[in-house]
Amino acid sequence: MTGMSARLVLSPLLPTVASSLAITPARSGVALSVMWVFGALTQFPGGRLADAWSRKTVLVASLGLLALGTALLFTTTSYLTLLVGVAVMGTGAGLYPPAAVTQLSELFVARRGQAISVNSSAINVGGVLAAGLAAVMLATATWRTSFLVLTAGLAVVLVVMHRLNAEPYAVSRVSLDLRGTGARLLRSPHIRAALLAYTLFEAAWLGTTSFLPTYLQTIKGFSPGLASNAFAGLFVVGIVANPVAGRLADRGSYLRVATGAAVLATGGLSLLVFAGTHRSVLLAVLVAATGLAAFWPAMHAYTMATLGAANRGGDFGAIRSLFIGVGALGPAAVGVLAERTTFDVAYLGLACCLLASAAVVYWLVRRDIE
């Protein structure tokens, strides 16, 4: 929750940050993509290290890097230092999920989807907190102060993780075995298709969330406060949608729930582009938010059930590295398209990505039936 707040707070702060540092929408998108790319690059090492060392070692290290990244952003005075800060923060954030999700999947085997969905709900709480923190700091202090608050919060979480996680610390030489991991994953048509679906959905998710407050202010005529509230609403819906999707997936089919979520997200994002009133825009955000949130617990549970137990952490980390690494181009693509055409064109492109993801997951559904 705290780590996601640190990454997502940049979205509602982005118009102010861009004005303060005199950067264009394209450069803003590149900065956000740098954060997610560095997060992608450390997913696979994070999973391998969690398998070879201990989950606790990786989790505590990731929190330390996240805190360092937010501290650097607090001192940012130029575009270059902004890039350094988001890169460090992304590195720490990338180490965390493979260790955390693997630990959850091992603790809650029969209710894996529900356990992962509760964790995903905490991520959505982070989005709500990010919107609230940005609104308060912009009204009472500066955008940089947001990162000082987050640094303090991450330091507290790090201490709590150190004290409450009963696993020992362990460090040793580890072979990443890139070739073996790649061959093992790409040998399976199910994993190849899941990777494609993940990548398309991730690009749309990152592109949507990164620029939503900016899009609502510049295209839909929202005030900064209303745009921040709509951004928070995106994650409020996720708090409810995640556990519901996880429970439905455990009782029925992971892939069917994921397909329905992607179709719902496509409809919501398409409605957002063509909505003409504030009420219809907010309705579109809520519909899109439901689909964007429900997809992840179902697909993650399917993936964890498909992977072998011996290399589950590393393989899941490799999958996340691939789809987040490519999907991280989403914010940069939105920024460039918005600068050269319009935000509406960029968001329609994101809707097409969601529809393509739904088609790929539905292909997996049909393959499993056959």
Give structural notes.
- By secondary structure, the chain is mostly helical.
- The protein has a single domain, classed as MFS general substrate transporter like domains (Growth Hormone, Chain: A, Up-down Bundle).
- Helix content is about 85%, strand content about 0%.
- The chain contains 16 helices and no strands.
- Helix 4 (about 45-50) packs antiparallel against helix 5, helix 4 packs antiparallel against helix 14 (about 310-325) and helix 11 (about 225-250) packs parallel to helix 13.
- The protein is globular.
- The termini are far apart.
- The mean pLDDT is about 90.
* CATH class designation: Mainly Alpha
Helix content: over 70%
Secondary-structure-based class equals mainly alpha
How many domain modules?
1
Count of strand segments: 0
Unreliable stretches (pLDDT < 50, length at least 5) are none
Identify the overall geometry: globular
Largest sheet: none
What's a quick, concise take on this entry?
The chain has 16 helices and no strands. The protein has 370 residues and is mainly α.
Notable traits:
single chain; 370 residues; mainly alpha; 16 helices; 0% strand; globular
Please specify the SSE layout and strand pairing:
Layout: H1 2-8, H2 10-21, H3 25-41, H4 43-52, H5 55-74, H6 79-107, H7 112-140, H8 143-164, H9 178-186, H10 189-218, H11 224-251, H12 254-274, H13 278-306, H14 312-327, H15 329-340, H16 343-369
Helix pairs in contact: 1-6, 1-7, 1-8, 2-7, 2-10, 3-6, 3-14, 3-15, 4-5, 4-6, 4-14, 5-6, 5-8, 6-7, 6-14, 7-8, 7-11, 7-13, 10-11, 10-13, 10-14, 10-15, 10-16, 11-12, 11-13, 12-13, 12-16, 15-16
